[in-house]
């Protein structure tokens, strides 16, 4: 009787080379790094679809940033937004 060996898939979000907190970081640059790592993942589409279905509250899922269950283009850094030139005074 032979045993079936299933090859292990290397997922960027579960790799010991990557910090798991990267996918839930506060810094926009770190979230962009997580998104770039997702581009090589074989489960990218399935991950994003499942996260949208679950309405994940936040984080990078399937190469996209989610906020309150919705894809956003980019996360703004914490703090007060900059004033636009021409609008002051």
UniProtKB/TrEMBL annotation:
The protein's required cofactors: [4Fe-4S] cluster
Keywords: 4Fe-4S, Cytoplasm, Disulfide bond, DNA-binding, Iron, Iron-sulfur, Metal-binding, Transcription, Transcription regulation
Superkingdom of the source species: Bacteria
Short name of any one Pfam family annotated for the protein: Whib
GO MF terms held by the record: 4 iron, 4 sulfur cluster binding; dinitrosyl-iron complex binding; DNA binding; metal ion binding; protein-disulfide reductase [NAD(P)H] activity
Signal peptide region: none
Membrane recorded as keyword: no
Name of protein: Transcriptional regulator WhiB
Species whose genome carries this gene: Gordonia phthalatica
Annotated gene: whiB
């Amino acid at each position: 009787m032979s045993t079936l060996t299933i090859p292990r898939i290397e997922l960027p979000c579960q790799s010991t080379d990557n910090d798991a907190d990267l996918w839930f970081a506060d810094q926009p640059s770190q979230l962009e790094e997580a998104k770039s790592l997702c581009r090589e993942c074989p489960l990218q589409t399935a991950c994003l679809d499942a996260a949208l279905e679950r309405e994940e509250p936040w984080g990078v899922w399937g190469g996209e940033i989610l906020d309150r269950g919705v894809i956003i283009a980019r996360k703004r850094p914490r703090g007060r937004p900059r004033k636009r030139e021409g609008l002051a005074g």
